UniProtKB/TrEMBL annotation, chain C:
One of its GO terms (molecular function) is transmembrane transporter activity. The keyword Amino-acid biosynthesis does not apply. Belongs to the binding-protein-dependent transport system permease family. LivHM subfamily. The chain crosses the membrane at residues 40-60, 69-88, 108-132, 139-155, 161-183, 195-213, 264-282, 313-336, 348-374, 386-404. The keyword Oxidoreductase does not apply. It comes from marine metagenome. It is found in: Cell membrane. One of its GO terms (biological process) is amino acid transport. It holds the Pfam family BPD_transp_2. Keywords: Amino-acid transport, Cell membrane, Membrane, Transmembrane, Transmembrane helix, Transport. GO terms for cellular component: plasma membrane. This is Branched-chain amino acid ABC transporter permease. It is a multi-pass membrane protein. PANTHER family: AMINO ACID ABC TRANSPORTER PERMEASE PROTEIN, BRANCHED-CHAIN AMINO ACID TRANSPORT SYSTEM PERMEASE PROTEIN LIVH.
Length: 408, 255, 422, 413
């Protein structure tokens, strides 16, 4: 068995482990651990897609969380404002579609229950349970949210074509700040910092293999998020292996040279923006439905720094490493909340864990530039290279062109 | 039949008139030297031919297709390849991947094994086969230069512009590059060689173009050019040091 | 509110012709075989200011682009926006209330000076090291924290100005140590993408510092005492103090403009520091060496300057300047470990607007941003939203700058080193 | 070379061990009760730390009296950061990881709104201590109780006081864009409007630090009375910057957020905060019961503060009422606790706590809105004023309502 196969085996083992985990684990904190893992998968999607954007394509964007937020808010607003009803409310904006009425709820912002109510609540009060309204299927919302992310990815990608490095980072940071400010200011529509509530992923529960799961059960969202992660990883793996991966890495290394060799740098730059921001938006939309609430604080730069740190510690230039790093770090961050005592001094880990995490980030950057996970993966995939080179060099027959006094 | 036609090219940067009505043509697998003092506009000319910057006026036709308004990647597909004055390999990609880029970029439906075989052939020619899976940044400066030439072979263009291929190169390597140029030329490709090393230019080229501060002051056989009083006056008399590249600056200006 | 349509249509009109101008002017200049640098800026400005009336002659005559050609249309566009705004909302304080406008402008100027100083640190770091420090806001936060701790917790009763000096000293050392430990790999080519490394490593520092301060000091809002109280002045006399009237914390000029003490003191300190900095940069050997390195690293090395020392000095000084802004503002704002974020973002905007690496640019940029934010908070008609958009005002300026003139107002065409590339 | 081969399985094993090493929930003792408090920004940390202290004192006092059902109780305090999504996750953690049987505390309204559903769907009773938003009890969830005042009701005190102040014709309201601030501001606007007083509302983000522009705008409106509905450090920032701009508590009638009741933080952050009005929950210290006096003494001794804040009292009672309910229910089952809570009569430090409306009696039977569901109807709300500079909050002058009045308000002209 060679190393490549070992790597495959390990990957399969990891996948099998996560597939069976919900059935193997049975402690009292089951729900919490499942929650941590679901969040871990969510961050893994963000970190791996961000590694495709910044690690592979070299587009250092700090706006990834903004795309996540676009997806989440896209689906949140969709499910918050649109409903189907068999009878007209005569209060809301509504359109007749077939035998149903398409209802658009009016935006009333944040209220206290004694104050104004939206038209639909009023109508429901009048009907007093005699009419059943149907909320929109959430998958449409998730789809729309992802598309919204993709469209903005396209626009931003086109805008930043000429910007490099620091300018790109600043611009995308600015974009996410504008988006955050807009969401928190437009209270009437987005409910501002109060956040907007969403239906759960399986609002009415779901029955799988005869087993009924309620809307708050962790197993269905766990598998949804896990398969989403697998799907994203599959797409990223395919992209990385295909000419797309080759070209975006070439343009990361040297845009002019890549263009001179026939690579349509403009197209690939925009494509990588669109693909990764769609992924981020998709993850955001699903996560929002899982958590049940989305607030503009999710778009804050601190959240972004978490994704950046996860990707860097895992390995920026390998999306799989970034994903694994994200899961492990999310897990450790949650579990290291326990305080401990050293030499009579109590260290409150709820506070210090993030300090250690930041220090780890800096040390990783300084001394393990490829991240902590990438070297392990490279060990399996690239181990033959060094031996090949050495072998050849040892061979006296080959006349190598060895360098002396060559500048380059 | 390879045919490049450059007509009345003009390029200004701010108040600087870098190219003044430059016209010339290439027919068939010629091996041409392009010389001129620092700041003569050689690199600008290369950048315009390659599409990296647009001329203010004038036209460039390659094999009957107008290329002066095309972006670089289209120009590369039409059939013009170039190297850069400073070696620009894709440092954190393997040698093979470096070679895949042009091949896959040019032929959308290229077969991977075919490309690999071709790449290995190229590597054999460059005596670098054993390094195929090394990252380019692990290579020596000279090897990176060879790799850049190898990429051009993979792109398989009709015309190759080599910008200072001999700058700071070790003599052993020089031999390989000589051989490369001759071989590629024999295979039916036109080559434009930009260099400050007159010996190399004179030993390789059958035709010389001389640029002097934007003017194309001579175009002809090396012997004729050598004796042209204008050229002697402008250039051959004194030979400068390595000049500094202005590619980036120029691009900034045009942006 | 019916009239606000005027404002939006005017904005749309300006935007439309601005875009048309920016796209086609460049093409016209290119076709006419002319210098195209700045043609986008000129096109958009002329388009926005005069619409087709301005663009057609511009395209026909294609005059050489001069500063005048940029500035006049720019001011005209701003003027048109102002008039449209005034027409749309005549009741607005920004239109009808002169003393309000004066107060807002004064406030904008004063806070702009402080912003400018902070951004100066960022631009100093950039001009020497070629990296954008994402930990700038945390230095600002630490500066304020140190003043609080030294004057209230560690040595109660210590004069805040000494606290400021302590803060400067400690942050200078922090910056120097960080630079030695983490930024040295930038200089010897061991790193393939130095700009990205710089961003990430300072990002990591910011993260660590912020949570470190929170873990050590807790997250309670703190604040230092006012450095100086205003003396009680009433001029010309007690009965009719129309010229100047002061209370402990407030100064009122001409019965209209009120200036708060902490901001006034902070801006005075900022100006003094700025003058000191200018003296340092232009009159002392070390300062000259710094500038030499920022202009041409290799030449400076040949001239006997050790660029590594200059790197350390620049980063430490840049951090110290940010800390100083924080230290002077801790008397004005409640202080938390998170306070650095907003000023850091603002500094980014300012340095891009002023031109990355340009010292005077940072200062001018600071004042412009100060004024823009004052105008934004002061004039946006809906009081529910005006202040929520504060972070966005600066970001809109940033976006426009990057689109129209990426080098900024006073940016050098090519910042030092290859990685200063846009 | 073989090293890594060993390392990878080891990493996997380590992860497994981490899974396994998390302590399994110990069967019954100690009985765990969750406590929500904002302990890091953007939450209001001052409030959070006070609540934490009070809840830990509650734990101590209850255990000193023999605990609950023969067990000690343990209050597991968790940091909500004042963020709704964090709060939902933390509620999740309390219930599933720590195994709490009920939850007390809670400061920010948005935290209450977001976390109540989690608890309710898992059948864990919650007694919210300081979350004012009406909707928290307004959707009549089975497991949700509240001893804090309703927002509409607390706002009522604020605007009624403003309305009766002399010469008030125009009021400026500065509010945060959250589900505490916006409804409260709306209540005030409507209430003032009903008295023929006009008002203007300024909204700000909770993270805002620099209020100079807004202060100038408020000043330019020339209102007679300013109501500031900003929690945490934003409230301090606004008050001091308004004072610096010549429009603070000493220049106009000024209602500050109750975070100012934390007098040390108030005077440190707002040195010119003299004459500000604040709303305080609970009766004045002179009318404290013995238990409240004892708590206040312990609290002062532990924290070095001059008095105990209302939200600390509420947090203390939220734990106390839960403990009594568990005792009366005779089990830690959520439904049993709810039944006990609906019937409870708890002598807390705030007064006698009971919940008149619930599954036995709908609020609509008394013509009240659904927000009175599981709501303690009695918390006393007073208006207090700092009349001397540097004054501790417990000696603040109570200026409204008449019942509790200890002195006349000083109205700034």
């Amino acid at each position: 068995m060679n190393r490549q196969q070992t790597l495959w085996l390990i990957s399969i083992l990891i996948i099998v482990f996560f597939m069976t985990f919900p059935f193997l684990y049975g402690r009292r904190d089951y729900d919490y651990i499942m929650h941590v893992l679901i969040t871990g998968f969510f961050y893994a999607i963000l970190a791996s897609s961000w590694s495709m954007l910044s690690g592979y394509a070299g587009q250092f964007s700090f706006g990834h969380m903004a795309f996540m937020g676009l997806g989440a808010y896209g689906t949140a607003l969709f499910s918050h404002y649109f409903y189907l009803s068999p009878v007209p409310t005569n209060l809301c904006t509504e359109f007749e579609i077939g035998d149903q009425y398409f209802i658009i709820k009016d935006a009333i912002g944040v209220t206290s229950s004694t104050l104004d109510q939206d038209c639909l609540t009023k109508a429901l009060a009048i009907w007093d349970g005699s009419v059943q309204i149907t909320p929109m299927p959430i998958w449409i919302g998730i789809l729309l949210g992802s598309m919204l992310g993709g469209i903005f990815g396209l626009l931003i990608g086109m805008l930043v074509l000429r910007l490099r490095a620091a300018y790109l980072a600043l611009f995308t940071l600015g974009f996410s700040e504008i988006l955050r400010a807009t969401i928190s200011a437009e209270i009437k529509i987005t409910r501002g910092q109060a956040g907007i509530e969403l239906p759960y992923l399986f609002e009415n529960g779901i029955t799988v293999f005869g087993h009924e799961f309620s809307k708050t059960d962790k197993i269905p969202p766990y598998y949804v998020m896990f398969f989403l992660l697998l799907a994203c990883m599959a797409v990223l793996a395919w992209l990385a292996k295909s000419r797309f991966g080759l070209f975006v890495r070439a343009l990361r290394e040297d845009e002019d040279a890549a263009a001179a060799l026939g690579v349509n740098t403009v197209r690939f730059k925009i494509m990588v923006f669109v693909i990764t921001s769609t992924m981020a938006a998709l993850a955001g939309a699903v996560q929002a439905h899982y958590v049940g609430i989305i607030t503009p604080n999710n778009l804050m730069i601190l959240q972004m720094s978490l994704v950046v740190a996860m990707a860097v510690i895992g390995g920026l230039e390998n999306f799989a490493a970034a994903a694994i790093g994200a899961i492990i770090i999310q897990f450790l961050l949650e579990l290291l909340r326990e305080s401990f005592v050293i030499g009579g001094v109590e260290v409150d880990m709820t506070l210090w864990r993030l300090v250690f995490f930041g220090a780890l980030l800096m040390i990783t950057l300084r001394f393990y530039r490829n991240g902590l996970i990438t070297p392990i993966i490279e060990f399996f995939t690239r181990a033959h290279v060094a031996s090949e080179t050495v072998e050849k060099r040892m061979d006296p027959k080959t006349e190598d062109v060895e360098e002396e006094g060559i500048t380059g | 039949m390879i045919e490049l036609e450059v007509k009345n090219l003009n390029k200004r940067f701010g108040g600087l008139h870098v190219l003044k009505d430059v016209s010339f043509g290439i027919k068939g697998a010629e091996l041409i030297g392009l010389i001129g003092p620092n700041g003569a506009g050689k690199t600008t000319l290369t950048n315009i031919l390659d599409g990296a910057i647009k001329p203010n006026s004038g036209t460039v036709y390659l094999n009957g297709q107008r290329i002066d308004q095309l972006p670089p990647f289209e120009v590369a597909k039409v059939g013009l390849g170039r190297t850069f004055q400073v070696t620009r390999s894709f440092r954190r990609m393997t040698v093979l991947e470096n070679l895949y880029v042009p091949a896959l970029a040019k032929h959308v439906a290229a077969d991977k094994t075919e490309v690999t075989n071709k790449a290995l052939e190229v590597l054999d020619f460059l005596t670098m086969r054993h390094l195929r899976n090394e990252y380019a940044q692990a290579l020596s400066g000279g090897q990176q230069k060879l790799l850049e030439l190898g990429r051009l072979l993979m792109l398989d263009p009709d015309i190759i512009i080599l910008d200072e291929p001999f700058a700071g190169v070790h003599p052993t390597l020089m031999e390989i590059i000589y051989e490369y140029i001759r071989k590629v030329n024999e295979e039916g490709k036109a080559i434009v060689l930009i260099s400050h090393q007159m010996d190399s230019i004179f030993s390789l080229c059958k035709r010389l173009l001389v640029l002097n501060y934007g003017d194309l002051i001579a175009d002809g056989a090396p012997e004729d050019v050598k004796n042209d009083p204008v050229v002697v006056d402008a250039y051959l008399g004194k030979d400068d040091d390595e000049n500094s590249d202005t590619t980036n600056n120029e691009k900034q200006n045009s942006a | 509110m019916e009239y606000s349509a005027i404002f939006w249509w005017t904005t749309l009109w300006l935007l439309f012709w601005g875009v048309v101008g920016s796209i086609f002017t460049r093409r016209v200049y290119l076709r006419k075989d002319l210098d195209t640098s700045n043609s986008i800026l000129v096109g958009s400005m002329v388009g926005a200011a005069f619409g087709p009336v301005g663009l057609v002659p511009l395209w026909l005559k294609t005059p050489e682009i001069s500063r005048k050609l940029i500035l006049i249309p720019a001011f005209v566009s701003v003027g048109i926006m102002m008039i449209a705004f005034a027409l749309a909302d005549p009741q607005n304080n920004c239109v009808s209330n002169g003393s309000f406008v004066a107060s807002q402008i004064t406030n904008g100027l004063i806070i702009g000076i402080i912003y400018g100083l902070m951004a100066l640190g960022l631009t100093l770091i950039f001009s020497i090291l070629g990296i954008v420090s994402f930990s700038h806001g945390e230095f600002y936060m630490i500066g304020g924290m140190l003043v609080y701790y030294s004057t209230v917790v560690w040595f109660p009763g210590l004069h805040p100005v000494i606290g400021v000096l302590i803060a400067c000293l400690l942050t200078f050392m922090l910056g120097a140590v960080f630079e030695r430990l983490f930024l040295t790999p930038l200089y010897d080519g061991r790193i393939d993408r130095p700009v990205e490394y710089g961003i990430l490593i300072t990002f990591g520092l910011a993260f660590t510092l912020q949570y470190f301060v929170q873990a050590v000091g807790g997250a309670n809002p703190v604040k230092a005492k006012r450095f100086f109280d205003f003396p009680r002045i009433r001029l010309p006399d007690k009965a009719d103090p129309w010229l100047i009237k002061t209370s402990r914390g407030n100064m009122e000029l001409f019965d209209t403009i009120s200036i708060s003490n902490p901001r006034f003191v902070a801006s005075v300190i900022s100006i003094m520091v700025l003058l000191g900095l200018l003296y340092f940069l232009y009159r002392t050997w070390t300062g000259k060496a710094l500038r030499a390195v920022s202009q041409d690293r290799d030449a400076a090395t040949i001239a006997g300057i050790n660029p590594h020392h200059m790197n350390m000095l620049a980063f430490a000084m840049g951090g110290m300047i940010a800390a100083l802004s924080g230290a002077t503002l801790v008397q004005a704002f409640s202080w938390l470990p998170q306070v650095g974020m907003i000023p850091a973002m603002r500094s980014f905007v300012i340095v891009v607007l002023g031109g990355l690496g340009s010292l005077p640019g940072a200062f001018i940029g600071g004042i412009i941003i100060g004024l823009v934010e004052a105008a934004g908070t002061g004039c946006v008609p809906d009081p529910q939203k005006a202040s929520s958009y504060i972070p966005a005002y600066g970001m809109i300026v940033l976006t426009l700058t990057l689109l129209l003139r990426p080098t900024g107002l006073l940016g050098r065409r090519f910042a030092s080193g290859t990685h200063g590339k846009l | 070379m073989g090293k890594i081969k060993i390392i990878i399985p080891r990493i996997l094993i380590t992860i497994l061990v981490i899974f396994a090493s998390i302590q399994a929930y110990a069967a019954s003792c100690p009985i765990k009760i969750g406590g929500l408090a904002p302990l890091s920004a953007p939450g209001s940390v001052t409030g959070g730390e006070a609540m934490r202290e009070a809840m830990l004192l509650a734990e101590r006092d209850i255990n000193a009296k023999g605990g609950v059902l023969g067990c000690d109780i343990e209050v597991v305090i968790t940091d909500t950061e004042g963020l709704p999504e964090k709060a939902a996750a933390m509620m999740q953690k309390l219930i599933t990881q720590d195994g709490v049987v009920a939850v007390g505390g809670g400061y920010h309204s948005s935290v209450g709104v977001a976390s109540k559903d989690v608890a309710n769907s898992r059948g864990i009773p919650v007694v919210f201590a300081e979350t004012w938003n009406d909707t928290i009890t307004g959707d009549m969830q089975k497991y949700i109780f509240r001893i804090a005042p309703l927002s509409s009701w607390a706002s009522g005190v604020i605007w009624k006081f403003a309305a009766q102040a002399p010469g008030v014709k125009y009021v400026a309201i500065v509010t945060e864009n959250t589900d505490y601030g916006i409804p409260a501001a709306k209540e005030c606007v409507e209430g003032l409007g009903s008295k023929g007083i006009s008002s203007i509302t300024f909204g700000v983000d909770i993270g805002t630090q620099d209020f100079a522009g807004i202060v100038e705008r408020v000043k330019a409106e020339r209102p007679d009375y300013t109501i500031v509905l900003l929690t945490g450090e934003a409230g301090f920032n606004y008050a001091q910057q308004a004072a610096d701009a010549g429009f603070g508590p000493q220049d106009t009638m000024f209602h500050a957020n109750q975070a100012g009741l934390e007098s040390k933080a108030w005077w440190e952050n707002v040195p010119d905060g003299n004459l500000a009005f604040m709303a305080r929950i609970g009766v004045p210290e002179t009318m404290y019961s013995d238990s409240a006096l004892k708590l206040a003494a312990d609290y002062k001794a532990n924290t070095g503060k001059d008095g105990i804040e209302s939200y600390a009292l509420e947090a203390y009672d939220s734990i106390g009422v839960i403990a009594q309910a568990i005792n009366e229910a005779g089990s830690t089952d959520g439904d049993a606790i709810v039944t006990a809570l609906e019937n409870i009569s708890h002598d807390g430090v705030l007064g006698r706590i009971y919940f008149p409306y619930g599954s036995k009696k709908s609020p609509s039977e008394d013509g009240k809105g659904s927000e009175w569901w599981h709501q303690w109807p009695d918390p006393a709300i007073t208006m207090v004023q700092y009349q001397k500079e540097g004054e501790p909050s417990n000696t603040m002058t109570i200026v409204y309502p008449e019942v509790y009045k200890t002195g006349d308000p000083i109205y700034v002209d």
